[in-house]
């Protein structure tokens, strides 16, 4: 009950036109979460809004939820499930954000509040905006109708083969069971036709399970299926089976895990599920559901009889965007705003100083072109901003936004395109890059965001109380748990694990602490896994973490510099050494090349930083052991 009261006081509930009009008279900035009655407000941002409210503690900042179904002014928002936030100042719409992008939402709130306070002080006029997302749908579809990329091949299988969609759900993936399950599927004789790892958005999960919308567990199911990565598989029938769907459903067992354990103890759900919601795997209910699910996840997948037909619905794909140094320095925020406004999610982002050799490697197809020297000069003149952009039809839509590669054509044929808008005077090279097709996007994304492994440790002080929360957040951040082991370190093992610190004054305290109870060792994989896990942990000193990164694990769960909840490798080399020490030689498909690793700028070692902090602090305070 207390939690509900907090949310109610945090966000004013607006459910009719009269309340809406009253809300618009509120002085200051009001951030409105527009929602549909059937899907409810965006719960994922409530904790963020509460944090912002507490930190800013400003009477001019207000939050509200508005039910579009019963408010005339929000008629055009009906029937949509994408999270949408409207910013109102003085009753006027001053900004719009689509999608639950927490960093962008926080930044926009701070910026728009500052603007509104300035307006109230100076009495100047507001810059009113219109929601570009509400363009006439037919006009929008006509403008953006995607064409099949020339180099994107459809996967065609004989019409005589039956198929089904299988999903290894986030609970099984988070516990490192995906590979085991896939091996058992193949050992059972099922043919694996397609395989993709992806994290569903809430909107996608809601759409995928729309046939279960009337069931009481629907909202929990949506939240669970969007909580972390899943593995999406397309399976064909085992030999001698006319219809794969009954065979697959027999193999996975009943949806109720307890029933599966009683009646089908060898089934996947009996072996890997924990309860009905967290039952490890999904299977299509019948051939109609299999066809719809196939179109949902793999629109380029066709049977021979369908090869001439258009796809149903595009799946979310990713493309690479590069903002070259000149424009990255001056127009970064403006371009990012246009990217978000166009419905993209920035899945990954990094600034990179490229060497000449790396530019030649990336643009190997252009090295012999007349313009390459100018391109090389531009790409090495400063930091390049690399982005992994995600949305349905990402490659096509980003290419449309960019416009023609030739600047003269861009300015003449499409002056509103990004390349025309952000052309640099006396510079013949356009300032933005996009992948030409989905296959090229995969290569380019792998170049800038190679898969990495890192070792993560949940230390004894955090394991007992915060284990489930930390594991959930690891999954929610898009990490895959490749290996997991809970263990009590022997003194010899702890000393060997921290052998590089043997001469440090805090070494004995550290070893004593790490041996006093169980800890959890994890191998995490993701693009930029080392850097992202370090960012998720936060500074090694919890007090600094609370100042600089209040949502980090150490800021929330650490007691002091020694008992700081979690550990992470400082670089790829250290990660591989420690992974081998704990788990032995385990294979990986994500080991980056030396060249790829060189793309990231050198950063200070988090272990070295931690050592200095511990050394300083342990001279001032005693261990809590």
UniProtKB/TrEMBL annotation:
SUPFAM superfamilies: Nucleoside diphosphate kinase, NDK, Thioredoxin-like. It is found in: Cell projection, Lamellipodium; Cell projection, Ruffle; Cytoplasm; Nucleus. Residues 132-146 have a biased composition (Basic and acidic residues). InterPro entries: NDK-like_dom (IPR034907), NDK-like_dom_sf (IPR036850), Nucleoside_diP_kinase (IPR001564), Thioredoxin-like_sf (IPR036249), Thioredoxin_CS (IPR017937), Thioredoxin_domain (IPR013766), TXND_domain-containing (IPR051766). PROSITE patterns: NDPK_LIKE, THIOREDOXIN_1, THIOREDOXIN_2. GO terms for cellular component: cytoplasm; lamellipodium; nucleus; ruffle. One of its GO terms (molecular function) is nucleoside diphosphate kinase activity. Residues 1-115 form the Thioredoxin domain. Residues 132-153, 592-625 are annotated as: Disordered. Keywords: Cell cycle, Cytoplasm, Metal-binding, Nucleus. Transmembrane segments: none annotated. Pfam families: NDK (PF00334), Thioredoxin (PF00085). GO terms for biological process: CTP biosynthetic process; GTP biosynthetic process; UTP biosynthetic process. Belongs to the NDK family. Major role in the synthesis of nucleoside triphosphates other than ATP. This is Nucleoside diphosphate kinase B. It comes from Crenichthys baileyi (White River springfish).
